[in-house]
Amino acid sequence: MTVLKVMNLRKEWNGSNLFSHITFEVAKGERLALFGRNGIGKTTLLRCIKGATNWEEGDIWRFAPASDWGWLDQNVEAGENLSLLEFARSGSTELSELKRKLDLIQQQWSIHPSPDSLLEEYGELYERYVQLDGYGWEQRVEQCLERLKLDPSIWDVPFVRLSGGQKTKVQLASLMVRMPEMIVLDEPTNHLDEETLLWLEKWISDYPGTVLYVSHDRAFIDRTATGLLALDKNGCRKFTGGYTEYRRQKKIELQTLETAYKKQEQERTKLIEAIRRYAQWFDQAHRAAGQNDFLRSKSKKNVSRLHAKEAELQRLEDNLVQRPKETVKLNMQLEAEKFRASTLVRLSDVSFAYNDRPALFKHLNLSVHNGDRFAVLGKNGSGKSTLLKLVTGDLQPQEGLVELHPQARIGYFAQELEQLDLEETLLDSLLPLPDMTESRARTLLGCFLFRRDDVFKKIGELSLGERCRAAFLRLLFRRNNLLILDEPTNYLDIDTREVVEDALLSFPGAVLLVSHDRYLVQKAASRLFILGESETPIDYPGTYEDYYRADRSRLYLPEEQARQNEQERLKLKLARLMSEEEPEDPEAGATLLAEIGKLRRQIDEMDR
C-alpha cells in the first residue's frame, strides 16, 4: 500500500531550478532515508510534502489524513509562552484543546462562581475528555518525557528557551504519544547524545508505521533505513538498504558503467576507423572508375558499407554511456611538523570545574603520543569540549598540570573557524600556507568540493558548512603535528565528511577528536577517551566498534587500567615500526630492529 506519492516535482529557488523530475513512492512500513548534498533541497522537499512550501510543477499525493501524519522539524515555531509540557501535548490536537478549555474553566471558577451554562459546558468537555482517555494520555506524555531524560523540573520552561537537543526530544515525545501512521523527520539526530541516539535508533527500527527522514548520520541510516532515496537537482533514485549497502550498490554500478564506457569507446574507435577506410576506398574507386559503368557500380558497394557504418556510429552516439564521475579523493601526501619525542601532551592529575558547579574532572590523566588518534566520547555536558580547551590552553585547570611539548604545534578547529577572514577569498586564504602555490591551492579546493569560480568567493559569502570545509583545509596544511577537532563535521553533508575522513587518515600527526559522527569516529580514531561512564575516565585502546562489542561489565582497578593502556600503547608503537620501510643505512636498520625487539620483550613481560 502506498502512503506517499511524488510525481515530476520541480522547485525553483531565486529563479533557478533547485530540483526537478523528482518522482518516488513510499510504501506502508518503509523507513526511507532522504540523502543528498547540502543545498540540494532535502528540507525544501519535506516542506513541499508537508504543504508548507509551494512548488512549480508536479504532484504530491498523501494517502492518509493529516491527523495520521507526524512531523519533526529543524526550526520549530512555537508561542513564547508555550511550555515544554504544553508543546509535547500539542501534537494530540483534540486532547490538548480539551485540556486547555478544562483548565481555563477551572481558573475562572477559582476567581468567581460560574454560571450554570459554564458548568454544563465543563460537563460536556469533561465527558469527551474521559471518553478519549485524557488522563491516561496525560500520563503517557509525562512518561515519554521522562524516558527521554527531560526532567520534570524543566517542564514549565518555555519551549523557545530550550536547547536544540531538548527541542528535538520534546518533538519526539509528542510523536511517541500519538504514534501516527506516517512520520517525517528532518535531521532527528542533531544535538542528541549517544544514549538518546541509540534509543532513537531502536525506536525507529521498531516503529510500526512509515518513516521518511533526512539525516547525515551514516551509522543511523545503516541501523534504521530499509531504503535510501538519493536526491540530486535532476531527479532521485531509490536504493534498498542503508548507507553501506547504498555505497556497495553505487560501487558496482560505477564499475559496470566504467566497463560499458570502455567497451563503447573501443567500438567507437573501430567504427570511426572503418568509416575512414571505406570513405578512402570509395573515393579512390570512384575516381579510378571514371565513366566505366561496371567499375562505378562496383564502387557503390563501398559507399553502401560506408553508409552502414555511419548509421551504426550514429546509433552509438545516440545512446552514449557517459563516463562515470569518480568520487573525490584527497590524493596527496600531507605533512606535519617533524617531532622526535614520544609525548606531545600530558595531563597529570587534572581537576576542573566551572564557577560553583560540581567538578567535571577530578584527578584526570591523559597522554597523547605522536601518531595517536584519540576520540573523546561522553554524554552532553560530560566535559568533552572543556577537555580540548584545557589541552589548547584556552582553560587552566584548578588542580594538576597540563604539559605541552615545546615542539608541539596545535591546530585547533574551533579557533581556526573563528579566525577566518570574512573579506578574504578562499584562494587567498590558502596562499600564505607553507609551500603553497596557486595551482596547488586550486587543486586542494577542488578536492574539498570547491569548484571553478568558487575559489574566488569571499569567505563571508559561504554557508556555515562551506566555512567548516575551508577551516579544516587550512588546518591540514599548516604543518601542525597535533589536530584538536571539536565537531569538525557538523553542517557537512556526507560527501564532504568522507573527504574529511580521507584527509584525517593520511595526516601523519596526532589527532584529538570530539564528534557525534560515529562513522567518523570508527574510521579515524584508534583510541577512545570516554568521560562520564565511571568516576574515572576510560582510556580505551581500540576503535569505537571494539569498545561497544567488548564486555565492559568488569571494572578494572586504576593500576590494571594503566597497565592495559600502556600495553596497548606499546602494541600500537610496534605496529607502526613494523610498517616502516627498512632503512638503506645498515646502522639505522640495526637501530630499528633493536627497537622492535625491545618493544616485543616489553609486551611479552606485561603478558606474564
Account of the protein in words:
The protein is α/β, with parallel strands linked by helices and 608 residues long. It has four domains: 2-100 and 132-247, P-loop containing nucleotide triphosphate hydrolases (Rossmann fold, 3-Layer(aba) Sandwich); 248-318; 343-554, P-loop containing nucleotide triphosphate hydrolases (Rossmann fold); 556-608. It contains 20 helices and 18 strands. The chain has helices at residues 42-50, 84-90, 93-111, 116-131, 134-147, 164-178, 194-205, 218-224, 243-289, 293-318, 384-392, 413-418, 426-430, 438-447, 464-476, 494-506, 518-524, 544-549, 558-579, 586-607; strands at 2-13, 16-27, 31-35, 57-62, 69-72, 182-186, 210-214, 227-232, 235-240, 343-352, 361-369, 373-378, 399-404, 410-412, 482-486, 510-514, 527-531, 538-540. It has a six-stranded mixed beta sheet with strand order 5-6-7-3-8-9, with helices on both faces. Strands 14-15-16-12-17-18 form a six-stranded mixed beta sheet. Strands 2-1-4 form a three-stranded antiparallel beta sheet, with helices on one face. The longest helix has 47 residues, at 243-289. The model is unreliable at 553-558 (pLDDT under 50).
